[in-house]
Amino acid sequence: MDVLLVPLIDVIVIALQIYIYVLIASVILSWLVAFNIINTGNQFVHSIGGFLYKATEPALRPIRRRLPDLGGIDISPIVLILAVFLIQGILLNLKAKI
Length: 98
Fold this sequence. Notes:
single chain; 98 residues; mainly alpha; 3 helices; 0% strand
């Protein structure tokens, strides 16, 4: 059982790290669109934006509903990244105990 659990934890930790990178890319893209640096009329940018939205919005939406309104500041990605770090820490601690 432990033989399969360690690689599984490693895969989950790597997937969570990739998800953090996707979150960061989503935030950066939203800033670039908000400051009109890139145009979402471009098909490539629209495709990337659609992917990032579909990958991050299901996790960010419940967090946004529970956070207080801070005006134009959205801290939900920071909360989600901290939650992912917490999950990674728990998994790595579990792996160390095996």
